[in-house]
Amino acid sequence: MNNKFVVSLTCAKDDTDRATVAFVVANAALGSDQDTVVFLSTEAVRLANKGYADDVAEEGFARLADLMSSFAEAGGQIYVCAPCFKKRALDDGNLIAGAAVVGGAKLVEFMSGGCPSISY
User: Fold this and answer.
1) Do the beta carbons of residue 78 and residue 93 sit within 8 Å?
2) Domain holding 59: CATH number?
3) pTM check: above 0.85
4) How much is the pLDDT for 2?
5) pLDDT of residue 42
6) Can you give the pLDDT at residue 94?
């Protein structure tokens, strides 16, 4: 059985509820012994820059920055869509822990052989 899981996230401060829940689910997947990747695309790539998520706190949940840190510290990987990141002229020298700017082929490679995923 394949123990991989992907959470695809397309929003950031434009929908903080979805962004927060995506990392709650990603942490749950890691806690269930799944090799887990969060794939950030479109607006979500902004989350990969240090400090961006620091002020995001949805009622009833841990702060988004804390969820993201916990995910990375537990071994989760954050793939950041390279074209989306470049389009927004973001600083790849200011990435959060666990984040890597990658092309789509890296995600396809991770998911090859079958991999459940969920999108927010």
Assistant:
1) no
2) 3.40.1260.10
3) yes
4) 80
5) 98
6) 96
